[in-house]
Structures are given as C-alpha cells and as structure tokens.
Amino acid sequence: MNTGLSRYSRAAASLVGAAAVVAAVGACSTDSATTGSASSLTPSTTVAPSTTTTPAVADAITDQQKQQLCTDLGEQLQEWRIQGPTLGRGGLNIVVQTWAAQSGVINLQIVQNRGIIDDITSENCSDVREEAMRSLDIPDLASGLVGF
Predict the structure, then answer these.
(1) 47: which DSSP letter?
(2) Domain residue limits at 21
(3) How far apart (Å, rounded) are the C-alpha atoms in residues 27 and 48?
(4) What count of other Cβ atoms lies within 10 Å of the Cβ of residue 12?
(5) Cα separation of 128 and 96, whole Å?
(6) What is the pLDDT of residues 89-117, one digit of tens each?
(7) How many domains does the chain have?
(8) Are the CB atoms for 127 and 71 separated by under 8 Å?
C-alpha cells in the first residue's frame, strides 16, 4: 500500500510541476508589446533544426540530469504498459515537463526542440526509450510530447 501512496504523491507533484511549466511557457509566448494584449500568441517561425541545436543543448544538460530523465522514464514504463498508449502519453508529458521544470534552463530548450528528449535517451538509455515508444505506440518520444 505504501508504494501506491508514493505513486499518487509523485503523480500529484508531477501534475503541479506540469501546470507550472504550462503557465510559464504560456507567459513566455505572448507578445504584449506589439499587440497590447497578452492573449495574442506570437508564432515561432525561426526554430533551428535539431542537428544545429542539439550539440549546444547536450552541453548545457548535465550527465546527472540526463540520467535522471532516464530514471524517471524507466520508473513509469510498467504504468504505461498497464494504462495503454492514450493515458500513457499524458504520463510521458508529465514526466518530461516535471524533469524539465526541475532542471531549470532546460524548459526553453525543449520547447524549441522536442527531439532533445530522443537525443538524450538514445545516448543514455536506449532500452528505456525503445520500451517507452513501444508502450506508448509512438515512433519517437518527441511525437508524444504535446505540452511543449
């Protein structure tokens, strides 16, 4: 029973973290200077390709942070197998958003290039990545990230 309680505690903490990330991203993506209204979103048209931004991002993310992402994803694999792809994909978003929020600067980098998650997991925990993609029925982890 204690294990179930800790799962619920982690899930609640993850939801709070995810809400904070969504609020922060929403606040950063408004253009009130041009339109005078914070509700007008500014489209992003100058995002650099994955191959250009990944090396710089990889240097900014520590090995410990990369391993933490792998651990966090690995801890959820069994849940995603049970829940199935639809619910599991929501869980993937919560795990990644919480990890990014705890890592600070990483949030903006992931918003600009969701493929960072695939790069990190390919290099550090390819077995966890493969199992997550299989359980969530997605071709790569980036395609399962909708909150970024």
Answers:
(1) P
(2) 2-144
(3) 22
(4) 10
(5) 14
(6) 999 999 999 999 887 767 778 888 999 99
(7) 1
(8) no
